[in-house]
Amino acid sequence: MKKELEQIAENMKELGLAALAHVNNIRLMEDRWSGILSVLQVAHAMEILAKARIAQEHPLLLFDTYPKPTKRENRIINEMTLSQLSEKGRTIEWSSIIEMLWLVADMKTVDISAFNEFGEIRNAIQHFGIVSKEKSVSYLTSLQFIYGTIDPFINESWGLFAVDYCQDYHEDSEDNSNYWNYIRECLIGNEIIFKVSPFLAENKAFWWSSIKVAEEFTALAEESDFIEPIEVSKEYYDAIKEQLQLYNVSVD
Questions:
Q1: CA distances (Å), 213 to each of 99, 207, 210, 220, in order?
Q2: What is the reported pTM?
Q3: Which of these, 12, 123, 27, 134, lies nearest to 61 by C-alpha position?
Q4: For the purposes of burial, counting CB atoms within 10 Å of the CB of 203, is it exposed (0-12), middle (13-18) or buried (19 or more)?
Q5: pLDDT averaged over the chain?
Q6: CB neighbours (10 Å) of residue 216?
């Protein structure tokens, strides 16, 4: 079973990133149900990714309870198998993930309040199909969690960026307008702070153009005749500008 256990962390990481890419796209904005259902998908991606990080330390840390061994004459006579573990073991729950990440990996970047609140929203939708009237749920709920929680988490864990995991981008396609529109409409349009990846910095012209600050086009983001302008606050502009400067991208 040792060899099988060694593969768990990487398999879970790949699955979690695929789950993130599946929900992280412009279709989040299609209708009310797309936004609500995305909460379930985003929570699923986060849980898998968090458990992947825990499994890097040791896969058995994922379990709260384990199968009992078979004993004879005061000795254990059977071997544990992965199938027995998956069938009879019970993994840690959402509420225990933050503490386990801190315990095994000394991770402190995850916002505990945001994590717990998102878990409550996920549970309300999954078990009752509703959320309380005090909590407005839309595609923004998912976007804020992706870029406020998952993005810094995968960056600290593996040096990855959430913007690079989006189903709208296809490497072998000449037209990735949906992806650039996602960055502009979903993220910049809603002033969602995200970590700028090397890929985005290299392709700045596709997403950081026709940006207005205080109704004026910036030198960093020139006016375009082909792209609808987006106006952002000075604070948001400065946050993105600061990240682009890390890549030595030309800024004003």
A1: 41, 15, 10, 11
A2: 0.86
A3: 12
A4: middle
A5: 85
A6: 10
